[in-house]
Amino acid sequence: MNPPMLQLAEQCILLHIPGKTKESVLREMAEIAHRRIPHIETDIIFNALWEREQIGSTGVGNGVAIPHARIKGLDRILLCFARSLEGISYDALDNQPVYYIFMILCPVDSGGTYLKTLAGASRLLKQPEIRRRLRLATGQQEIVEIFLQGP
For residue 140, what is the enclosing H or E element? Predict the structure, then answer.
């Protein structure tokens, strides 16, 4: 059973992200997040994600990236998911294209919850069956349910 912290809103899910590069994908993810948290500008979100990528790629392997950042002015965790059908060159740890992007934005002071969310997402997305279900999902609600139900 998955912790409820991996709950996604349908508005935060892109079934096919058009970007082909890490930068364009992170910018598109920042725009999705901005629609949910309009008081925080897209550039602030993008810059926080991009700065985190400069520390080390969040492309964790197996076609998965988990970009994450702490955002000043955010009052709750925001999760977004996008899928690329063609794959993105993302500088992943295994040098393979990324197909699944799970973005985690957290308030600056959310230490423990932030790490638990990151660990939960990583654990779930490591599972081949979960990635298969995400690849085959045809709607946003189906993606929401995959993250809620887990394996």
Answer: helix 140-149
**Block residue for tokens 């998911």:** 81
Sketch out the chain's domains with CATH numbers: 10-138 (3.40.930.10)
**What element of type H or E holds 81?**
strand 78-88
41-44 LR contacts (CB < 8 Å, sep 24+): 44/71, 44/72
Residues classed as catalytic: 68
Helices (H) and strands (E) in the chain, counts: 5, 6
Supply the pTM of this predicted model. Answer: 0.93
49: helix, strand or coil: helix
Q: How many CA atoms lie within 13 A of 111 on its CB side?
A: 0
Q: Is 73 helix (H, G, I), strand (E, B) or coil?
A: coil
pLDDT tens, residue by residue, 119-140: 999 999 999 999 999 999 999 9
Instruction: List, in sequence order, the alpha helices (H) in 37-139.
Output: 42-55, 111-125, 128-136
